[in-house]
Specification:
globular; mainly alpha; 5 helices; 0% strand
Length: 87
Amino acid sequence: MIDLLVKLRFPVTLLFFGCQFLWIKLGANLMDWDSLSIPALMSVLFLTGFWLLILFDMINSRIFNKTFWLMSMLILPNLAPVVRLSA
């Protein structure tokens, strides 16, 4: 699965940042489930699934400096998955 994401890294990157923009533009908040709309819910589900997919790939694969990549996923969760796909 990760090979497909790497092959299609530009459209996946656009989709990832598009979902982040949609989430921010809608003013969605996970603490307020009553005002969470369908597009906001779909974008947060996509972002969480994408983030977990990249995280599990980092854990399972043999990469150089794994601690750096895992810490970057926790410190910069909005940027690290896209950087990981391009690396």
